[in-house]
Amino acid sequence: MLEEVTVCLTGLPGSGKHRLKAALCHQLSVDDSQVRVDGELENSTVCHQIWCVIDIRSTLQGLPDMTVEAHLEKLVKKADGVLFNFAEAAELDAQSYWSKWVRKQSKEIPIVRILNQRFPENSTGFDLTKVSRPADFQQADLIPKALETFLFEVGTIHLEHLLMGLDSSKQNLGMKIWRVQAVVDTFEYENLVAIEGTPNRWDTYAADPKQPSGWIKIQGFELQQAWLNEIIQASSCRT
Length: 239
Description:
This protein is of the alpha/beta class and 239 residues long. 26% of the residues lie in helices and 24% in strands. Helix 4 runs antiparallel to helix 5 (225-235).
């Protein structure tokens, strides 16, 4: 079935769409050109199947930016199926939350859990007959609004101060920070640290020492560049 279709992966920034594209091409022997991530979509792109990817490790509860949930609702309602990504690392409460949340948007849309970046054995995609898209469906709506992007060059930083400052900007100031990526030297650790931030979670881990470092990329909507620069500068000061 997948030999004859183009699959379009949608979802919130940082939900693992590119990882799943690589897994789909490798595991199911799908050609790279047959799988498009939402950021690669154009008006001329033909999407035979639309799969919405959700990182189920964290919920949307307590999220101050209501536009995040509204955006994800629209994506699920336009999709043929939902992929629950990172299921192996999701607690049962989070899995239950997302199952109920998706069912609130659609009682019939199929859900597939992805474990360790692998699709279930003998997976062939979703049955198109099981999902009825809304009458006002427009494929152009799948093309995401461009995120504002700011790239900062940094030296050694206090990791905890940086994350606290960015999270406070989201929680207390309502700043719509949807994506943070970085590889930095920190005062806390000897090794390089990679930062992955999404609308509803933060992850840090040891980075490959060979990759470029000393940068932080922040993306979102209605961002205040001067304020973000102040946070980064404050995180770079020794205490």
